């Protein structure tokens, strides 16, 4: 049986999370207090995260965490099977695969895509997820912790949150950005409309910004917002950053990175970006700014509805 967390599961979850985060499935050590934060966030009905207990023969056999964010490219919510842990004595019984099937069914009407992460050294898990229909995407994640970030002076007038009058400018620029070879798949214009609508509604999973030059729209940025046990709370992912061709070479892209880091400084635990594997110039730029690679492949699967 698989069921949502209850208050009575706290100590069991903390013990299992400790075991999971002490294994080689996690890239870095995780403070115990992060597990407590995650549990309380789930019990407070956070829009970012759900938690489940996996049972077998009437005993607690493991747990799973699901987190949510929003993707313009996907045209909706990405539901990520963030952590899947099975106690050693219950392994090799198909509980992990059953849990993934449970999540796929539970969230099929909410999700534009299902998402998994697997370390690049875990061939066994990679092969398992491939058999289950997940495919690797060509974006790598690069991150920087807030406590490792020295904030640069920034231009507060360089950007602002999107407003209703930005709708047509956003559609035009998003179409141009999604026509480039940075984007892995074709993106229908309906996705841009969905994204703008969600931003205007105040969806907690996504923010949108207009980048300005002399008061005119020169570009846009989308920030997807999610919550991870591994980082102890909220992370902000700079999902899309686009500058119109006529405004390039003016420092607007770099200026927006400073704006982005300052804008979320008081509320984020981690800054995150995604770069295509071939973008060596981007990799070098962000490494100089203190960003580091995550050693995870991202894998996606479309729901069958």
Outline the fold blueprint.
Elements (H helix, E strand, L loop, with lengths): L1 E3 L5 H12 L10 H12 L5 E8 L2 E13 L4 E11 L8 H12 L4 E9 L3 H9 L3 E2 L2 E7 L13 E3 L5 H12 L10 H13 L4 E8 L2 E13 L4 E11 L8 H12 L6 E7 L3 H9 L3 E2 L2 E6 L4
Parallel strand pairs: 4-5, 11-12
Antiparallel strand pairs: 1-2, 2-3, 3-4, 5-14, 6-14, 7-12, 7-13, 8-9, 9-10, 10-11
Protein name: GNAT family N-acetyltransferase
GO molecular function: acyltransferase activity, transferring groups other than amino-acyl groups
InterPro entries: Acyl_CoA_acyltransferase (IPR016181), GNAT_dom (IPR000182), MshD_Acetyltransferase (IPR050276)
Question: Averaging pLDDT over every residue, what do you get?
Answer: 94
Termini separation comes to 23 Å
CA gyration radius, whole angstroms = 20 Å
Helix content: 25-40%
CATH fold-level label of the largest domain: Aminopeptidase
Beta-strand share of residues: 25-35%
**Second-tier CATH architecture of the largest domain:** 3-Layer(aba) Sandwich
Can you tell me the number of structural domains? 2
- At the first level of CATH, the class of the largest domain is Alpha Beta
Quickly give the structural class.
Answer: alpha+beta
GO molecular function: acyltransferase activity, transferring groups other than amino-acyl groups
InterPro entries: Acyl_CoA_acyltransferase, GNAT_dom, MshD_Acetyltransferase
Organism: Youxingia wuxianensis
Protein name: GNAT family N-acetyltransferase
């Amino acid at each position: 049986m698989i069921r949502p967390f209850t208050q009575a599961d706290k100590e069991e979850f903390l013990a299992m999370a400790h075991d999971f985060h002490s294994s080689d499935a996690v890239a870095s050590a995780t403070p115990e207090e992060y597990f407590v934060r995650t549990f309380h966030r789930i019990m407070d009905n956070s829009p970012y995260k759900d938690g489940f207990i996996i049972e077998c023969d009437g005993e607690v056999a493991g747990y799973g965490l699901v987190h949510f964010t929003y993707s313009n490219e996907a045209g909706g919510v990405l539901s990520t099977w963030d952590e899947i842990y099975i106690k050693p004595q219950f392994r090799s019984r198909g509980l992990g695969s059953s849990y993934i099937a449970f999540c796929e069914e539970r969230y099929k009407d909410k999700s534009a895509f299902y998402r998994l992460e697997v370390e690049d050294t875990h061939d066994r898990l990679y092969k398992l997820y491939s058999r289950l229909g997940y495919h690797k995407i060509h974006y790598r994640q690069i991150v920087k912790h807030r406590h490792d970030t020295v904030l640069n002076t920034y231009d507060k007038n360089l950007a602002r949150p999107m407003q209703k009058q930005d709708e047509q400018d956003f559609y035009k620029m998003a179409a141009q950005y999604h026509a480039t070879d940075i984007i892995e798949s074709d993106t229908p214009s309906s996705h841009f409309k969905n994204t703008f609508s969600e931003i205007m509604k105040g969806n907690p999973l996504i923010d949108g910004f207009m980048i300005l030059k002399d008061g005119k729209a020169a570009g846009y940025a989308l920030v997807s917002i999610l919550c991870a046990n591994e980082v102890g709370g909220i992370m902000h992912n700079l999902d899309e950053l686009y500058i119109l061709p006529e405004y390039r070479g003016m420092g607007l892209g770099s200026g927006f990175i400073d704006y982005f880091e300052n804008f979320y400084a008081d509320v984020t635990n981690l800054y995150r970006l995604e770069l295509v594997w071939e973008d060596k110039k981007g990799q070098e730029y962000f490494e100089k700014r203190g960003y580091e690679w995550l050693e995870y492949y991202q894998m996606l699967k479309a729901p069958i509805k």
